[in-house]
TrEMBL record:
Listed HAMAP family: Glutaminase (MF_00313)
Gene: glsA
Catalytic activity: L-glutamine + H2O = L-glutamate + NH4(+)
Name by which UniProt lists this protein: Glutaminase
Family designation: Belongs to the glutaminase family.
Species for this entry: Cupriavidus yeoncheonensis
C-alpha cells in the first residue's frame, strides 16, 4: 500500500477544511489551540511509520484517554467490568446526565463521561494515582517515556468539571462509585489532559491492530478476545453521538476526543491517528473525520 502517496494527497486536499468547525472552549485551555493544525500518522506492526503535517506536535488527548483507561480496567476486571458499565451506544451527548437516572446510575458505555468516571473509579481503587497508571501505560505502549499530562489543561479542566462532578455524585448516590468523588474527578481530569502526538497515539493503539500485543516489545496488553471486544466498542461507541455516521463514512473502529484527535485501527494492518482541533457539531474533529474517510476510500481498506 502506497501510504506516502495517500497521506500526501489527504494533507493537500484537506486544506480548505482547516479552520472549519469549532475548537472546544468549554475547557478554556483547549480554546487557545489554533484551529488550523492538521497532522496524521499511520503505523504498521512491522515498525513503519508514515506521517504528514503536525503529526509530531503534542495535543490534548481528552477522551482518547478513555480508550486506554478502559484497556487497563478491562485487563484488571475482565468481564466483571460490564457489571459496572454497559456496552451500548448512549444516543445522547457524551456528558449527558439524563439516562443515568432511569438506568439507576449505570452508564451506557465506557466512552461517555459517566462510563469513563466509573472506569477511573476502578483504577483509583487499584492504584495510588490512577492517572499515573494511565501515563505509565501510555509510555510503555507508545515507547515514548516523555509522555505526561499537561498541568495547565488539567487545572483548567478541574475548574470547569462541575458537570462531571455532578455525574459522579449522582452515580455515587446509586452506590456505583466506590472512591471519593473528588479523587475520581481529579484523576479523570489529569488523564484527559495527557498530551501526545499523532505518532505517539498511533503507536499506542497498535496493540489493538495486532491481537493485543505491542509489536516491537512483544508485551501482551490484552488477550485476542478482549482486544476484539474493545475494538467492537470503539466501533459502536467511540465517536460520540455520531458513531453510526462515522462508521458509514470511515469503516474503522475509532475513539475521538474534544482536543480534535481521532485514533482508529484496522485489525491486522495498521493504527492511525489524525488531529485537527476544530470540531463538527457532534464533537468529532471535522477535518479528522474527512481525512479518515479519504484514507479508507483511497486505500480501499477498512474492516468491511
Ligand atoms: N475532559 C473532557 C470532559 O470531560 C473530555 C471530553 C471528550 O473529549 O469527549 O468533558
Amino acid at each position: 500500500m502506497d501510504y506516502t502517496q495517500i497521506l500526501t494527497q489527504i494533507h493537500h486536499d484537506i486544506r480548505p477544511l482547516l479552520g472549519k468547525g469549532r475548537v472546544a472552549d468549554y475547557i478554556p485551555e483547549l480554546g487557545k489551540v489554533s484551529p488550523h493544525h492538521f497532522g496524521m500518522a499511520l503505523v504498521t506492526p512491522d515498525g513503519q511509520t508514515w506521517s504528514v503535517g503536525d503529526a509530531a506536535v503534542p495535543f490534548s488527548i481528552q477522551s482518547i484517554s478513555k480508550l486506554f483507561a478502559c484497556t487497563l480496567a478491562f485487563g484488571l476486571l475482565g468481564e466483571d467490568l460490564w457489571r459496572r458499565v454497559g456496552r451500548e451506544p448512549s444516543g445522547n451527548a457524551f456528558n449527558s446526565l439524563v439516562q443515568l437516572e432511569y438506568e439507576q446510575g449505570v452508564p451506557r458505555n465506557p466512552f461517555i463521561n459517566a462510563g469513563a468516571l466509573v472506569v477511573t473509579d476502578v483504577l483509583c481503587s487499584r492504584f495510588v494515582q490512577a492517572e499515573a497508571a494511565v501515563v505509565q501505560f501510555l509510555r510503555r505502549v507508545s515507547g515514548n517515556m516523555a509522555i505526561d499530562y499537561d498541568v495547565a489543561v488539567a487545572e483548567s479542566e478541574r475548574q470547569h468539571a462541575d458537570r462531571n462532578r455532578a455525574m459522579a455524585y449522582f452515580m455515587k448516590s446509586f452506590g456505583r462509585i466506590d472512591m471519593p468523588v473528588e479523587a475520581v474527578v481529579n484523576a479523570y481530569c489529569r488523564q484527559c489532559a495527557i498530551a501526545m502526538t499523532c505518532e505517539d497515539l498511533a503507536r499506542a493503539a497498535l496493540f489493538l491492530a495486532n491481537g493485543g500485543v505491542v509489536p516491537w516489545s512483544g508485551e501482551r496488553v490484552l488477550d485476542p478476545s478482549p482486544t476484539k471486544r474493545l475494538s467492537a466498542l470503539m466501533l459502536t461507541c467511540g465517536t460520540y453521538d455520531e458513531a453510526g455516521d462515522f462508521v458509514y463514512r470511515v469503516g474503522l473502529p475509532a475513539k475521538s476526543g474534544v482536543g480534535g484527535g481521532i485514533v482508529a485501527v484496522l485489525p491486522g494492518e495498521c493504527a492511525v491517528c489524525v488531529w485537527s482541533p476544530a470540531l463538527d457539531h457532534s464533537g468529532n474533529s471535522l477535518a479528522g473525520v474527512q481525512a479518515l474517510e479519504w484514507l479508507t476510500t483511497l486505500s480501499g481498506h477498512s474492516i468491511f
